[in-house]
Design a protein that fits this description.
The structure is a single chain. The chain has 164 residues and is of the alpha/beta class. The protein contains five helices and five strands, in the order βββαβαβααα. The protein has a five-stranded mixed beta sheet with strand order 3-2-1-4-5. α1 packs parallel to α2, α3 crosses α5 and α4 packs across α5. The longest helix has 22 residues.
């Protein structure tokens, strides 16, 4: 199964693709979609939609895992990121892919086993789980890989205990 993990954003959307079978997880690709703050919001959203659609068409993931948003102190930023997240979800739905959402706490618990793990602990564990030589950069891409791994763990649990 191929899983696309998405760390939602407006300026930077992290994505990570993994393939998993049983207990074997392999990293396929990771990176970021970036938009400039100098570009008008509608054009930024179109860039995200277009680039994410291209990634989905190229790798054909079976499922998508996306992080739920946390509340931000700056309401305007939260609204804009929320709009971007909606576009990211729409790109997946338009391609007919099942989508699953995870809170940051769920991701941390699935990756490290501790809900208050720091970013470095998450990144080091992602590196180890995917047998990578270095921590994936930028942070948004590492987070997206962590979200994909979290989903694979959830799927493995369901398969093992037949909770479909």
């Amino acid at each position: 199964m191929i899983i696309l993990g998405i760390d939602p954003g407006l300026a930077i959307v992290g994505y990570g693709l993994i393939k998993y079978s049983g207990s074997i997880i392999k990293m396929l690709e990771y990176g970021c979609i970036k938009t400039s703050s100098k570009t008008h919001l509608p054009q930024r959203l179109e860039i995200i939609y277009s680039e994410l659609t291209d990634i989905i068409r190229e790798y054909r993931p079976d499922e998508v895992a996306i992080e739920e948003l946390f509340f931000n102190k700056n309401a305007k930023t939260a609204i804009n990121v929320g709009q971007a997240r909606g576009i990211e979800i729409l790109a997946c739905v338009h391609q007919g892919i099942d989508l699953y959402e995870y809170t940051p706490l769920q991701v941390k618990q699935a990756i490290v086993g501790y809900g208050r793990a720091d970013k470095n602990q998450i990144q080091e564990t992602v590196k180890l789980l995917l047998n990578m030589k270095s921590i994936p950069k930028p942070d948004d891409a590492a987070d997206a890989l962590a979200i994909a791994i979290c989903h694979s763990s959830t799927q493995r649990f369901k398969e093992e205990f037949k909770l479909k």
